[in-house]
Amino acid sequence: MKNFFKATIFFIILILLIIVLSKVMNPSGGVKMWYSSNSILDFYEQTKDTIDVIYTGNSCIYSAVSPLEIYENTGITGYNLSTGGQKIWSSYYLIKEAFRLQKPKLIFVEVGELFSYADVEQEREKRYVIDSMEFSLNKMEMINDNIYNFSFEDKLGCVFPLFRYHTRWSNLDETDFRKIISKEEIMYKGYDLVKIVKKYTGKRQEHGNKARAQLSADAEKYASKIVELCKEKNCKLVFIKIPDPNVWTEEKHNAVVDLTSRLGVEYIDLSYDNLAGINWETDTQDVGDHLNIAGAEKISNYISDYLVNNTDFEDHRQDSKYTSWNMDLETYNLKKQQQN
């Protein structure tokens, strides 16, 4: 019995040590190139059942949709579940996770990754999401999904990141240790505020081409799963394309029109129709790939108008339950006013 207790205590200490070291070694929330993972980490800090709208997709979302801007305009709360290169199958699992913690009544899904294929997905694009998620049934279902093609060792590394990132010892910095105790708020409800201006000078979107791009069968499968999940949760779903002239084409637009028609989903293409009035001289941070704050304000104003005209969400700005949102909005507006 004495040996049994010793072995049990040793096992408990070992597991606790692995958990702590996994948090330190996990790049999520620490390494600069994993910056967007903060949108997932910060989501778990949101008060339960206070998010009206979820925006999910790749980096087009976190650079173009400002939930605090929309909140200031409408009093409607929202959050960006978005990471770099995020594929629609990862968006599906993030939506499932959102339903576990919140009761959103509207979800916007960015459609740029509908033309991506699982067999060429980079590991980092998978791990941005997985390594930032809390341990849950959703996470376990995700890492066991064949779409990710994980080996047993890969899955073990998803549960205990120490086994995947044990070679990071020489690259650790103070943020990796500080995040064990606390993490500074970096993103604004999943939005990455950037003021840099690098204009886009390429050709503008042309209309009139009737050709269709080839949709990814993998992506189409998970688009359908998202539709069914939202129906099950009685949640409105909108597919949206954020302006992205470097990669978005009329052929892709036409293919998504066909898909959304088959699925019975509303589709808004802000890239093809430029409904938000983006000015490519002033509204992009990196020659057209992502929008800056000027572009994000226009996209957020468009979404604000959409929400006011097409939904019946309550205005939370005077609700004491949302005092923290008003405080976050003050911090956000101060950041916008700063020179850098």
What report would you give on this structure?
It is a single chain. With 340 residues, the chain is α/β, with parallel strands linked by helices. The protein is built from 14 helices and five strands. The protein has helices at 2-25, 38-43, 59-64, 67-74, 88-101, 123-130, 137-143, 152-159, 162-165, 174-178, 217-232, 250-263, 293-310, 323-337, and strands at 53-57, 78-82, 106-110, 236-241, 266-269. Strands 2-1-3-4-5 form a five-stranded parallel β-sheet, with helices on both faces. Helix 12 (250-263) links the parallel strand 4 (236-241) and strand 5. Helix 4 (67-74) crosses helix 14 (323-337). The longest helix is centred in the first third of the chain and has 24 residues, at 2-25. The radius of gyration is 21 Å and the shape is globular. The relative contact order is 0.17.
CATH homologous superfamily title of the domain at 35-117 and 185-337: SGNH hydrolase
Helix and strand pattern? HHEHHEHEHHHHHHEHEHH
Q: Which CATH-level-2 architecture of the domain at 35-117 and 185-337?
A: 3-Layer(aba) Sandwich
First-residue to last-residue Cα separation = 64 Å
Helix content, binned percent: 40-55%
Shape: globular
Structural class: alpha/beta
Proportion of beta-strand residues: 5-15%
Radius of gyration: 21 Å
